[in-house]
Predict the 3D structure of the following.
Amino acid sequence: MEKATNGKDYSQRASFGTLLDKDKLLKSIFRISTSLTAPSNVNEILTRILDEVVDTIGFDMGIIRLLDETKKYLETKVVKNYGPEEIKIAFSVALSLDEHDCISTKVAKSGQPIAIEDAATDARITETDRMLTKIYNQGSIVCAPLKIGDDVIGTIAAWCKEETKFFPEEISLFLTFANQMSIIIQNTWLFETNAEKIRQLMTLQEAVSEINISRVLDNRILDILNKSALKIAKADKVLVYFLDIEKDRCLVTDGGKVFIEEKNTYDDKIGKSILKEAIDKDKIIVRRELSDDHVVTVCVYPGYSSEIAFPFHIKNKFTGALYLAKRSGSYSQGQINILDVLVKNAVTSYDNAIMHSMLSLEAKTLKTEVEKLKEREDILLGFHNILGKSKKMLGLFHVVEEVAAHNTNILIQGESGTGKELIARAIHKQSDRNAKPFVDVNCAAIPGTLLESELFGYEAGAFTDARKRKIGLLEYANGGTLLLDEVGDMGIHLQVKFMRMLENGYIRRLGGTDNIPVDVRFIFSTNKDLVKMVNEGSFREDLFYRISVVPIMIPPLRERGDDIILLARFYVEEFNKKFGKKVKGLSKDAELVFKAYQWPGNVRELKNIIERVMIIQSIGNIIMPENLPGEIKTTQQQKQFKIDIDDFISLLSEGVDYTAVTQKIITEIKEKILENALEISGGNKTMAAKHLSISRYKLIREQKKIGRQMN
């Protein structure tokens, strides 16, 4: 063991009693050992160890560093009583055993402890030590290896403000403590590593499953790749760079928005990074870049000490790389292998999506002009998952586009099942807040007292079960959009508090005193008559005017005649995919039934009926009227055969011509029946006659007879 010789005589310790007490060390080892039975991770164990060294044993500061998987770098894991600047340096610098000359690297390489009794004058303290922390300018230091047998896994260093003499037996005790701690660290690390590998593999499995079902060239595969890579690597930053070789354009995303620019826009930045190196060499690049002052710098994201890039190539059309960066820590070989599998699966899925797209384009060219025209006719003129091409819906879409750009409060009104939440989501997606959260709260589904805590949050101890602080939905939605569905069911007490929040722009958690500013775009929806509720006193008038700056009324389905069959066909296709069926659509008769029905449950009811028909009924290639529920067929029959007698009978005081009136009623009924049959058969008289169980000639005769009688 190395020992300081500064010429001073320490027959008695000047400012301390015995620093390293055997009983204290044994008790510390026992306390830390018993904590292994409780769920913990390596960092928690390291923190407890360092707390024992500093607080219990009697040092003033401490630090534990562990070797990374390559055994080439010492990485800071925990510190005790370091200042903010020292903490920043400690965690941003990984000490290279080959390049850095300092106390910790000497101990890690030699496996022997170093005790320094006078840090201000000891020659073994280097400039690197003094750069890392000011503790090397005074006091006494002991740095010991953390070892399993002869294998060094890291170092533990502790510092006293006062100069202290370390006796051999004390150093021996400290080494015994360090060795025992090494075993505990190793065992915890093994448990954590196994759990981490399982977590990484489960993340990979979930990502690959989602990626492989995608057959569309959109950003879905890219989103899955970004999120999964961050989780597997526990990285802080992600960036994906695609280069379109033919068009010389690049696509870049950092896990948020996607940017498509000319290649030269990113040449300066990408060209100097490991992204370019990985693409050019077509291999995985892992690198730490150290400046002259040993502070880690990263080309893409300065200040992130560990970076890795995975190259990929897609059908000779695109090339690029996935890039990850961390502020501290390294990438294990297991992580690298799993990330490599993830990237390869993403590339395969893009290949498949491109092939699928090409096949789809070829299939479309084989369609007849009639089929193409029908496709154009059936194009959904809505957006953001809202279907509709009726005039009222087109007007509604225009309103959504207009109001989305503003932060004005919006009140969406409409019957149940009309799609109020979809309209709210469309407004959010069209707005400049679309990258922030969209939070929806159903006021009718949450009791009043619970709704208040859900919206505003609470502090620990605010009420009996409030064991810890909870962030409210208003605070969580900061920067985004909050939909308060069924706002008419909000209690009067909560209306008052909500009104105050709208006026002041801040909230207070339950049990708290801090004013927390919130920046939220509010959308409200209800199927109730709020004006009536204001008059009755069950809804505050001032709140009503606050929330209804821009009122939007969603038309019921019965007023969207052009959309009923469009929606029905869409849901038939949706449930074809879900249930593995091959139903082509509705017959003409079935469509007439759908058009005649009033749809009190609106779009939700229509969807449920289609689902019920396709689950329960044994249907062929097309849905017939007999496949439909009785309640909607009854309505259609009533509508077809309902006769308004007032159209035929004049006032009784004026008298009634019985023969003329009854003959007119019969003629009207016959005309309706013939018109209906011809409409169902598409104007084909033979088919219409067959539908009525009469001959084609009788149908023609009846038409002529009716024409003469009507004239």
Notes: The domain at 645-710 is CATH 1.10.10.60 (Arc Repressor Mutant, subunit A).
